[in-house]
Specification:
elongated, mainly alpha
């Protein structure tokens, strides 16, 4: 704080009067205002007396300074007068200046009214009428006691951070360092947080390094974790890891589970297995117990890699350590088991969570409904849907679409269409996924005209088509034998902002191959490779089938070998196509060799394969007789 003598020096610094009489008039006015405030029946509100009302316009900065610095006036009265001056725009020519602010801040500090101090500073730094308030205040506080200066600067620094005045905050920090004073670590954290929220990660890192280098600020692990999180979100994960190692050694800071989990989450986002394993090992070495968030991230990681066994081990470890499970962990486990077709395990987890009084949410039900629909168990899906409604859990369009997709995959198109009606009566509008699902279901039943009408209705209702919509349309035209219209729509896709995907290309390639138009099929294959789409087993199977039916079996064999060299395993359709092609030419030895290979791979041949092989023997004997 400032002593009374210091306050008087500040009050009188740079002040001049026209005459002693003028000076006396100013002091008398200040005295009258002070008495008015002391005798006021409303201590938090300044109501000028009848005598003072005519003198309000005569209040000058000097009068204001004298009133605020008067030791007989309580701090709340000072605040009342100060707010009066700031709000009475029409009557007062001179608003509180920097000196007035500093005097009031000193009085409030002495009375330990820190909340009021912060409010005054906040109003000051955002006051457009006062030029350079930060540098101005700093220039005035040199004569004040260090303890007051340190507290004032700390508060000013925090206010600047709150108002995103980063350069002003840095000026305050520079001044404090120069004077050998210290900004509190908690205030530094406020600035780091503000910088991170504004995306100023580089500035955030630079200031953190200044904190470390100052040697006077006791760095907390929360500040380190915040900066690490900022770097991770910016994609600079290695720099974040190096910072943790550097600061942990230099400042003797032990990273917490939050620090490690932040890095772990970033490595998972990058699918960096080495980084993930390194963090897990480091946590084990430092005996840092994983949190619920840590375990959740690891479960998500292992399950997304298809390693549900490892995810189950993590889940069991959580139970052994009595980590309190939540709905999100169970939902994650249920969801991943459903994706991998482990419906029995997913259902067991669902039962377990309800037994533990963990209430499933819409996402939990959605995951399990998706799993049972995928398994074709529509009766079970219907039971879950009714259960959701009975428990008051809101249905959503994703669940409706999932149910419709399940019905369509089982050929239950009427049930799917009926559910669409129910969905829309509940206020949900069919989206692009709804229409695509229904159109695809109709196509499976060869109801192509209805499928086209469904997609046309979608467009008429203003729902923008996506790549699946275009691909479905192309499939319909291909099935109808209208390849010209399919090709036209294919070429129009990109003009309408949709890029063909591998399914789109495969649909056309298959159609051309079946129509024995192999030149166009191979052109499409080359085009998709140029666009960065890698041919898959369906691409190769279509081409192999096409080459076989046009009698170019050697070309089909080349394609088959090319596919295997690229690490693409053939399926039943692939082997059936190539075996049939070889058999037609009487190449029984090659056909039977591929049949043996097929059996070794665990692929079950169908009647077409056996018929082809028998036919190949007849062809072979015919050739031998000739």
């Amino acid at each position: 704080m400032c002593s009374q003598k210091t306050l008087l020096r500040i009050v009188n610094k740079g002040v001049s009067f026209h005459s002693k009489q003028h000076q006396q008039q100013q002091l008398e006015l200040a005295h009258k205002i002070t008495l008015n405030l002391i005798n006021s029946t409303s201590p938090n509100y300044f109501q000028p007396s009848m005598e003072l009302q005519s003198l309000i316009s005569c209040i000058t900065p000097h009068v204001t300074h004298h009133v605020l610095s008067d030791p007989t006036l309580p701090p709340h009265s000072c605040l009342a007068f100060f707010h009066f001056l700031r709000t009475q725009h029409s009557h007062i020519a001179h608003k509180p200046d920097l000196k007035a602010h500093l005097i009031l801040l000193s009085r409030l500090f002495k009375a330990r009214k820190f909340t009021s101090m912060k409010s005054i500073l906040d109003g000051l730094v955002t006051n457009v009428e006062i030029h350079c308030p930060v540098s101005g205040i700093i220039s005035l506080v040199d004569e004040c006691e260090p303890h007051f200066v340190e507290k004032l600067c700390d508060m000013l620094f925090r206010v600047c951070a709150d108002n995103r005045l980063f350069q002003e905050a840095f000026r305050v920090f520079d001044y404090v360092e120069e004077k050998g004073l210290v900004i509190e670590e908690r205030s530094c954290f406020v600035l780091l947080l503000a910088l991170k929220k504004c995306g100023e990660v580089d500035l955030c890192l630079r200031f953190f390094h200044r904190m470390v280098e100052s040697g006077s600020i006791e760095i907390r692990v929360q500040s380190l974790t915040l900066v690490i999180d900022g770097l991770c979100k910016k994609g600079e994960i290695q720099k974040a890891k190096e910072l943790m190692d550097e600061v942990a050694g230099k400042c003797n800071i032990k990273p917490t589970v939050f620090t490690y989990t932040t890095l772990l989450n970033a490595y998972v986002g990058r699918k960096d297995r080495n980084g993930i394993d390194a963090i897990v090992r480091l946590m084990e070495k430092e005996q840092v117990v994983p949190s619920l968030a840590t375990y959740s991230i690891l479960i998500q990681w292992y399950a997304s890699c298809g390693d549900i066994g490892e995810a189950e081990k993590i889940f069991e470890e959580m139970q052994e350590r009595n980590i309190e499970m939540d709905v999100y962990v169970y939902t994650s486990m249920i969801s991943w088991n459903c994706r991998l077709g482990n419906i029995k395990r997913a259902s067991a987890l669902f039962d377990e969570m309800t037994q533990r009084d963990i209430v499933p949410n819409a996402h939990t039900y959605g995951a399990l409904i998706g799993g049972v629909c995928k398994a074709g168990k529509m009766e079970a899906a219907e039971i879950l849907l009714k259960e959701m409604q009975s428990k008051g859990i809101d249905l959503n369009i994703v669940i409706f679409n999932t149910m419709m997709d399940g019905y369509c995959k089982r050929g239950m198109i009427d049930e799917a269409l009926g559910l669409q009606v129910i969905m829309e009566t509940k206020g949900f509008k069919s989206d692009v996924f709804t229409y695509n699902i229904l159109a695809s279901g109709l196509c499976k039943l060869h109801r192509y005209e209805e499928a086209k009408r469904t997609l046309n209705t979608m467009v008429e209702k203003g729902v923008a088509p996506n790549v699946v919509t275009f691909t479905t349309f192309i499939e319909i035209y291909c099935k109808e034998g209208n390849l010209a219209e399919a090709e036209r729509l294919f070429r129009d896709m990109e003009k309408k902002g949709e890029v063909p995907n591998i399914v789109t290309y495969n649909t056309l390639i298959d159609a051309y191959s079946k129509k024995e138009k192999m030149k166009q099929a191979h052109i499409l294959k080359s085009e998709m490779v140029e666009k960065g789409l890698l041919p898959d087993v369906y691409t190769y199977t279509s081409l192999i089938f096409g080459e076989c039916i046009v009698g170019r079996v050697d070309e089909a064999v080349k394609l088959f070998n090319e596919m295997l060299l690229k690490g693409i395993a053939g399926n039943v359709a692939t082997y059936t196509a190539i075996i049939s092609g070889l058999s037609k030419e009487g190449r029984a030895d090659e056909a039977f060799k591929l049949y043996d290979e097929m059996m070794r791979l665990g692929l079950t041949p169908d009647d077409r394969v056996f018929a082809a092989l028998v036919g190949s023997l007849h062809k072979s004997s015919s050739h031998a007789a000739l």
